[in-house]
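Anyone? Bumping this.
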Amino acid sequence: LAKADQALLPVPARQEPPASPAKPPRRRPSLRRVLTTAAFLAVILLATAFLVRNLGQNLAARGLSISFDFMLRPAGFDIPIRAIPFTPRDTYFQAALVGMANTLLVSVLAVVTATVLGFLGGAALLSHNPILARTSLWLVDFVRNTPQLLVLLFVYTVFLRAVPSARDSLSLGDAAFLNVRGLFLPALEAGPAAMPSFGLTLGTWAFILIAAAPILLFLPFRARRRLPLAFITLAVGGTLVAFLFATGAWQLEKPVLRGFNFRGGIQIVPELVALWIGLAVYAAAFIADLVRGAVLAVPRGQEEAAAALGLRPTQILWLVRVPQGLRILVPPLISQYLNVIKSSTLGLAIAYPEIMAVVAGTTLNQTGHAIETMMIVMVFFLALNLLISFLINLYNRRLVGRS
Amino acid sequence: MARHATLPPPPGPGLAAIVRRGLVSLVAPPGNALITAAVLVTAAFVLPRLWAWAVTDATWAGADRKACTGAGACWIFIRARLHDLLYGSYPADAAWRVNLCALGLATLMAPSAFPHRLRRAAVILLVLVFPILALVLLRGGALGLAGVETRLWGGLLLNFVLTFIAVVVAVPLGLLLAEGRRSSHPEIAGSSIAFIEFWRAAPIVAILFFGVVILPLLLPRGIELNKFTCVAVALALFASAYMAEAIRGGLQSVPKGQYEAALSLNLSPWQARALVVWPQALRVSLPAIVNTAIDLFKDTSLVTIVGLFDVLGSLQQALKDPQWLGLAAEGYAAVAVGFYVLCSLLSVLSRRLERELAVERRR
């Protein structure tokens, strides 16, 4: 019996140091272990068989069978908001792609905004100024303790109803406008000049290098050594964009008020604006808290040691506290991003056509293929999840490898 | 500045010193003074307007929409719809049954009000006796109480019932899943991980759709569940995946020696778990469990998407009433404050538990 009990010990996956004599070398699996395995597998198999049998009977009674053929039939419905082209004559499969693209579109917008807001909020929470710290703590707590759908519906029905009509739009310069019809931004389009060729034209490269050099030189030496690739990429990319605008290969098309509405530029419809703001504000509250936690988690001794070495407060912040805080922050931050993507399915409640609304909403209602449509949604989210956890693992492994 | 902040504080500064330091930090570096000014100006702009809208200019008394002055908030709307927001379509003459349940729940949920010996009794009552009593009271049809079908349940009642069911099912199920995840049997560990990750990967909207659309297809022919039950089952499965992760941390924190010591005292493996490992693990993971419950409570507001009328759904319904059009701001503000207060109370409870447990472990 003693041996059987030993075999049932929940041996943790981590390897114990070989010094511990408690674990005897594993021999043949004991009878009890084999029986447990068999019983467990039998229960799982029986349960699965039971569910599959019920499913088959229920589907047969409704005259349905599991098949993805319907995905290639014309959808017949329009998707008013679409990140990629779509007409009602396109197939359900293309409709699903539009839904995924819409989900990713709003998620990317919300993730970027939430990161900026969240870091600002985190800085405010950590501020030495008691008024600012208290106010931001109260705001963050309020948002965190309300349901996300409530925030979203509030933004959609109250906030976006309160913005003025097209004629009295809130404007930023004369480039961006916010009114009841949505947010109008300038569009990027091809300019009058031809796109320059990026072959090895010496003049082009010389221009880029000369323009980028000051940006690189202005960076303090230490920072350059620590963050070289990101900054060089950013500098070169920024210069490239400036160059394209300067030569006239690209230009901005500003939205202009004509009659009762704006023409030109990009129109972001209220549904997208509401979902964007709702997701971003909600996630920002959580990110602010993560940022605060990460910075506070850096041991105080690090700061004191840096001070003892004679580093200035700014240097301590950027060379000691931020790099170490970022290591703690990145994994929970990425899962917060994943939460944003998952929460974008709330777009269903305000008629933003993301993947749930298109696939598990309209497509399911029109075709009745419940199992297939839910499978498509689940595969989409499972794939996203696997991708994100793969990235987190990669990051963690890099960290472990470095230290 | 940061360098000075890291110096150990002088021994026992008086109240005056603390106040002085607080005041100085408001204006000390010029940047801070600027921030203080900006926050104060914003507050001076926002707060009086908010106060006027919500209190001084608001309409507090009156019978219907005509009484609303339009200058500020019109709280008559909330009062007129309060029954829907709290109880949904639950009959008004039976609302005392809901109130009694709420009172019981509040009493049992305030464990810090009990001395230690009573606390265990409170937990046992809450988990084993309260659900049965609450079910009889709410559902009726026994003890001379008139029956109230679950499809009439709504409002905040529905949020509470769904959260309670999900948590009570999810804690034991999550415990089993967390144990399964650590099992030395690869097939048990694998299935547990697959189950947990599946539910954690899905957005809650998809989970609710699963409950309403797929779950009825998986039941034997002839058995039909109403929407409330389907949603409750889906939420309970969803919650158990999250509870499993919350409890896993607690299980990992119990030293292996505890289990081995229990085995050497001739306890069977399951006795060792149930009597030695689990009590310690649950204790450590209690704050995480409460946090999961808070998240779940907020998430129950999503059931309005599949057509159940919880407090948010009832509000959406009330806002569509032609008599009360255009009062969305009042409605959302009231429900948001309600959620804020309830969730904050739960967080206070969680933090308090965390502190007490930390003290006990140090002993």
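Late reply, but here is one note on the structure posted above: The beta strands of chain A are 170-172, 176-179, 182-185, 187-190, 250-253, 256-258, 261-263, 266-268.
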